[in-house]
Write a structure and sequence with these properties.
The complex is a heterotetramer, with 2 copies of chain A (394 residues) and 2 copies of chain B (154 residues).
Chain A: E1 6-13, H1 23-37, E2 48-52, H2 56-59, H3 65-73, E3 80-85, H4 90-103, E4 109-116, H5 123-131, H6 146-161, H7 165-179, H8 194-197, E5 202-204, E6 207-208, E7 218-226, H9 230-233, E8 238-247, H10 262-275, E9 284-286, H11 292-301, H12 310-315, E10 326-327, H13 332-336, H14 340-356, E11 370-377, E12 382-390
Parallel strand pairs in A: 2-3, 2-4, 9-10, 9-11
Antiparallel strand pairs in A: 1-7, 1-8, 4-7, 5-6, 8-12, 11-12
Chain B: H1 33-40, E1 45-49, E2 54-56, E3 72-75, E4 79-88, E5 102-109, E6 115-121, E7 133-140, E8 146-152
Parallel strand pairs in B: 6-8
Antiparallel strand pairs in B: 1-2, 1-3, 4-5, 4-7, 5-6, 7-8
The chains are: A alpha/beta (394), B mainly beta (154).
Bound molecules: zinc ion (2 copies).
One zinc ion is lined by residues 49, 51-52, 54, 63, 65-66, 68 of chain D.
Chain lengths: 394, 154, 394, 154
């Protein structure tokens, strides 16, 4: 049997934000929304379920979450069922697993779903759970969490390349502006002009509140199928063309340079090579802007901006519509919020919608054919990239 | 269905959420707060899909069969009988060690197609038998929240 | 490109038991052991890492465990890195993911590793973490954990079919006797004759201590490669021929019959069909004996024993060497202990070793060609099956 | 290297293990208990692979390069300088809220190819600068366990 082409044929997300819903209720909500969005999808045809979730064991005190999600969504997977975890990249991992399962013939119709409930009555407890994404026993006792780590990244980038707070704010302004077109975004109704962003409180110097993504509740789901089934579900699938990952280190002592993310260069190269394209081919990208400085370094590592010039690239609007590449038209993690396991799935939903012409004009990428999704996880110690091509179902 | 005994409930030590089995029950945390409000009135209820005529457990916000989100609340019958039971004689989770030994079982409700799992109070596990009649009851857990359990008929 | 055949070409486990080692140290230990066991394996050739781990977020207060494990093992995965979770079946899920990745061409050489640290200074805390494998918010507050659930399964099987405590003890005696041949087993040096088993304390009636697997620390790792690379690593690979899973329910109210595990019948059928064999073809099986009653029902669901006759099958020694099918020659979960994520990997190690003739005579299956690995997870609400064939590397 | 100040350490509330960042340090829990014994003597040490001449952090039981399990303990130099730093002004994990604001940084050790992450004590974050000299120190955390941190040179 040949390795099969795999199409992403639809998907949806819940409203992201501080939700008065449990993890189970978010899973039920996204299941109902998915079947409403895709009336041709029948539960009994879904043979496999891949759940991306980062820390339900802690945030929701619930383990064995793949069958738990299946019950909430009204699914009875009869080929493959599993949960994939890669912290902030757990959702993309679920899609990659679904891809491999379908390509290899193990599955024909798979749902990849991401669910995360992060807003708890005790946010200090939630912060502890976030902190254990890093090396808990050796870095954790010092107070290692994402904000001070990425703050050091920003500090070094500012020192080495002269990147400014204003350039970082340009990233946040763009992504929040795109989020204002996206009713599912956490900050859909909030305006963040640049001058306001620069007056927000400092969270971890030099990062201000507007430089950081949020603790968010949300869920998202997509459907992937073997090529020959794609036309049953859509006439505008997103084809999975390339994937790459790289894992460098874990303990912060082994990070090496904070500003040169070699793991991302490797993962991007692998994904581009498999897709047979390069960075210049990409029309739009959903990249991991957990912090503004992340998106700036990602411009550089993907090769859209020269090394050290990511800040200028942002300030020049090169990641905006009309720029070199449209980055985070959905609103990014900054504008949409970052429900860890759901983020990578929601990014893929945006890819599908852009290809299908189902986004408002204010964020529509003109004639998109190639898209890229990127997630980093932890302290940017792992990078995950997928490349999609739009096109007709065969 | 009668609320639990009127004896005062000993106050419950506050536990971190990741060690607290009981659900958060207020409307800012769950869309199923009606269930817990009804529990305080001594009634165990659940949701039902009118379209599929399907009684669902646990209570839900979307039907697992038709995926619709229009469900209705119904009260459960309080009588049932033991389908299976066992007891926890050791190895209890944190916070339940002082309750050991305790009995648990699966209970077929009378007049509703549901077999609920729950704690079995009233008699020690050595005096239980399959088929034994039990009754659903609600109780305050000690911090203002309520839950349900079964009690053997006298 | 064709879907590729996938070979499991080697593996190893740490000593299972109550270990004076952290999660990280267990990962380091199994990494060192794997490279010692397979001198032809080079770290830079390992392109992908699949980690099976059930609850490191809770037991070890560590998330993002795939790159964490990579650092401990001295690996830098450059194709795929992820952790798979399916509670008690997390290890098998890692192997299935590695299989799909290699078969589809995403990976050439993958390590699947399982690590679990369960023995904590507070075992009540560990018990809470075990309990949240079931529906925590609805079944958990009643005290739902594995022992009382499987005790109810045993009670119903005894009621419906007349299965006896003595028949359950026969399973435990066999598996403990096999474990006495396995220095890596938790109970390698402990003898459990049937009369002793029947005098052990009751844990959850009718289950006694000897009917239940343990809380165990341990790690295990295997290497899977594309067919054309197999000969580089071994001349006796285990070929992955079939896989099947099924997910029925989660909340205990939705379990249906306790003694008819329809999910296992489905998963077995799927795996057998993909492999093109049936139950009678299987020479030996590593099945999920988390409790003695589980192995008895598994005899029935796989079709080796008639429905309701699993207890008699055990008492007759039909799962022993010389019987219909050799079941759990490694010593099973009862004899080896059950470090959740490591169990499925350690079962696969046994499959490799049996095919390679690397086990002591006392547990060697005569001329094995076909083997089966089974894991249930949670309250037997999910079943996972893989089928392997022994044979020369091509 | 000097042990931490001789002022008495306030006793530390016992936390569940799944909320306790500090490692278990005794020989029944870790094969690296030597590290913690040495900490009590005021010395931060780590392991080194003699075969690869590789200094490893954190201390390990197996070399990530040659996969050998024969490592040796070496003491670390106590001086270093800040490669990067920031501070936690909010959003601290449970148990660290009362320490906010606190500074953290990556420190290049003098004379050893290691850049360690750690808490920076001695001066508020507003008075720190890249390149600032700091010194490794050990301290008792309040329940008999020890850990390490950095302190700015006066
Ligand atoms: Zn319905
Ligand atoms: Zn070495």
């Amino acid at each position: 049997m040949n390795v099969r082409d795999v199409a992403l044929v639809g998907g949806t997300t819940t409203k992201f934000g501080v939700r008065p819903s449990t993890w189970a209720e978010l899973a039920q909500e996204v299941g109902a929304a998915l079947f409403r969005e895709m009336p041709e999808l029948r539960a009994e045809d879904v043979d496999s379920l891949f759940l991306g979730a980062a820390e339900p064991e802690r945030f929701a005190f619930q383990s064995h979450v793949a069958p738990f999600a299946a019950e909430q969504m009204g699914l009875r997977p009869h080929r493959i069922i599993q949960r994939t975890e890669l912290a902030c990249a757990s959702g993309q991992s679920a899609i990659r697993s679904a891809y491999a399962a379908i390509a290899s013939g193990l599955s024909d119709v798979a749902v990849a779903v991401g669910v995360e409930k992060m807003n708890l009555p005790s946010m200090a407890e939630a912060n502890s759970s976030m902190a254990c994404v890093m090396d808990r026993a050796w870095d954790g006792p010092h107070g290692a969490t994402a904000p001070p780590f990425f703050a050091m990244v920003a500090q070094r980038h500012q020192l080495e390349y002269g990147t400014t707070d204003e350039q970082m704010a340009a990233v946040s302004e763009k992504n929040h502006r795109f989020a204002n077109t996206n009713p599912e975004a956490q900050f859909y109704e909030k305006k963040f002009p640049r001058d306001k962003l620069l007056r927000l409180p400092v969270v971890a110097p030099p990062l201000r509140l507007g430089d950081c993504s949020s603790m968010t509740d949300g869920a998202a789901a997509v459907v992937l199928v073997a090529a020959e089934l794609a036309a049953k579900y859509t006439d505008s699938p997103a084809w999975v063309r390339g994937t790459g990952q790289y894992s460098n280190f874990h303990n912060l002592a082994n990070a090496g340079s904070l500003t040169e993310w070699t793991g991302l260069r490797h993962a991007a190269r692998e994904a581009f090579d498999r897709a047979g394209v390069d960075a210049d081919t990409i029309d739009f990208a959903e990249v991991h802007d957990c912090f503004t400085i992340s998106e700036i370094i990602e411009y550089e590592m993907f090769g859209w901006a020269a090394t050290g010039k990511g800040g200028q690239f942002a300030a020049d609007g090169q990641g905006d519509i009309g720029g070199k590449v449209v980055v985070n038209p959905r609103g990014g993690l900054l504008g949409c919020g970052h429900p860890l396991g759901a983020t990578g799935i929601a990014q893929a939903v945006e890819v599908y919608r852009q290809f299908a012409g189902k986004v408002p004009a204010a964020r529509a990428v003109p004639n998109p054919e190639w898209a890229l999704v990127h997630n980093l996880s932890g302290s940017a110690n792992v990078h995950s990239v997928m490349i999609y091509q739009g096109g007709r179902a065969s | 269905m009668t609320p639990s005994l009127p004896t005062p409930v000993p106050p419950r030590e506050k536990r971190p959420f990741l060690l607290d089995f009981f659900p958060l029950e207020t409307a800012d945390q769950t869309r199923l707060s009606h269930f817990f409000e009804r529990l305080k009135e001594g009634i165990v209820s659940t949701t039902r899909c009118p379209k599929d005529n399907l009684l669902l457990w646990p209570p839900r916000t979307a039907c697992p069969q038709c995926h619709g989100e229009t469900l209705e609340w119904v009260d459960l019958p309080e009588r049932g009988h033991l389908y299976a039971f066992s007891a926890v004689l050791g190895g209890a989770p944190l916070g339940m060690e002082s309750e050991v030994p305790f009995a648990v079982g699966l209970v077929d409700l009378e007049g509703a197609p549901l077999r609920l799992f729950g704690r079995i109070e009233g008699r020690p596990w050595t005096e239980l038998h399959i088929g034994q009649p039990v009754r659903l009851e609600s109780y305050e857990i000690g911090d203002g929240r309520w839950f349900y359990r079964f009690r053997t008929e006298i």
